[in-house]
Amino acid sequence: MKYASVKTNLPGPKAQELLNRRHNSVPQGVSFGVPTFAQSAEGAIVTDVDGNTFIDFAGAIGTINVGHSHPKVKEALKDQVDRYIHTGFNVMMYEPYIELTEKLAKLAPGDFEKKALLLNSGAEAVENAVKIARKYTKRQGVVSFTRGFHGRTLLTMTMTSKVKPYKYGFGPFAPEVYRAPYPYVYRRPDGMTEEAYDQYVLEEFKNFLISDVAPETIAAVVMEPVQGEGGFIVPSKAFVQGVYELCQEHGILFVADEIQTGFSRTGRYFAIEHFGVVPDLITVSKSLAAGVPISGVIGRKEIMDEASPGELGGTYSGSPLGCRAALAVLDIIEEEKLNERAAAIGQRVMQKFEELARRFECIGHVRGLGAMCAMEIVQDPQTKEPDKVLTSAIVQEAGQRGLLLLSAGVYSNVIRLLMPIVITDEQLEEGFTILEQAIEAASRSK
């Protein structure tokens, strides 16, 4: 059985009509990938308005770990709509909020009492984590990392590293935000071992606390356990533990930004579990609710309780629909053993990536953690010069053949995979075939 089938030009006739309407009503600053529109989606397959079908290796930018339109998520949403849609947790509370915060607190790493706050988006979760950290520590400074991505609001945009398209022309930025070095093993200095490089970057972080900002003024260090938009950069355990220990030494809160990495993407509920440290705060969103907007901050009870009533929250924060979808997702992850499935997918992806790297010299590096995998596209394997143009061409070629792909990285030269973890082996292999064809076609036409 063939899952991907593109029978029309893209955009097809119905999609073209919608695209014309889009251009007349939607600002050009809102980007899009394939030039078509969804009609339906199930599991790892998306069907557009012209009847074309696509294998989804993008997962709505990592929000569909349990797949599109999972029956249990749909059932939970329908049941909730029949009961009530929204009362505002700050006006009249509801049990799904309580049940979800209880489960999140239990799932999060750490053998101590935890509480959780529910919000709407990933950026909002990061903003609130910073608010909570500042309130608790009575400090203002916030440290993020080179190549990190934390959102598009004023504070999170400031914390984000990539200038274009996220920051250019949108300043001035929020004060008291500092950017620390983060390891990038593939681009380490020539002749330096990985172990020596880890130590070098950690020493740079120590120096950063002397040359850039005094540690006693820092409320929080916010780290993606695996950098998402930055190019799926996986740090070493030694680096993460070293930063954590410095935070402990100086009374700085360690915040794990798990918005893209959480809920089985790396083979664990939280990617930070791979690194042997326990964060003070964790931010979550994306795949928590299978596409329904919701986010949260999970943290130590004494830290989360520092803010006074009314200082945290929002009109739609932790909506009943989001809570019910999230509760269904957590059940699905456990019942369908998606952590184990993600680990198995990751092994197969990396095996395939290594095969492709031996065939195509434009693939300079492959890397990943669990099912969070990427390949870096370069002009020359010796110079490692990024190839943004070829990367874009591969993504476009894949889309024309029925495979949804995403690029990433500060140089826009990384192809990242965020397929639903419920994807079947047959769909995965067909997606690999299309990816290989897209690389070959894009390389030929270069």
TrEMBL record:
It catalyses: 4-aminobutanoate + 2-oxoglutarate = succinate semialdehyde + L-glutamate; (S)-3-amino-2-methylpropanoate + 2-oxoglutarate = 2-methyl-3-oxopropanoate + L-glutamate. Coiled coil: none annotated. The keyword tRNA-binding does not apply. It comes from the Bacteria. Pfam families: Aminotran_3. Its EC number is 2.6.1.19, 2.6.1.22. InterPro entries: 4NH2But_aminotransferase_bac, Aminotrans_3, Aminotrans_3_PPA_site, Class-III_PLP-dep_AT, PyrdxlP-dep_Trfase, PyrdxlP-dep_Trfase_major, PyrdxlP-dep_Trfase_small. One of its GO terms (molecular function) is 4-aminobutyrate:2-oxoglutarate transaminase activity. The keyword Transferase applies. Pathway: Amino-acid degradation; 4-aminobutanoate degradation. PROSITE patterns: AA_TRANSFER_CLASS_3. Keywords: Aminotransferase, Pyridoxal phosphate, Transferase. One of its GO terms (biological process) is gamma-aminobutyric acid metabolic process. Its cofactor is pyridoxal 5'-phosphate. Belongs to the class-III pyridoxal-phosphate-dependent aminotransferase family. This is (S)-3-amino-2-methylpropionate transaminase. It comes from Novibacillus thermophilus.
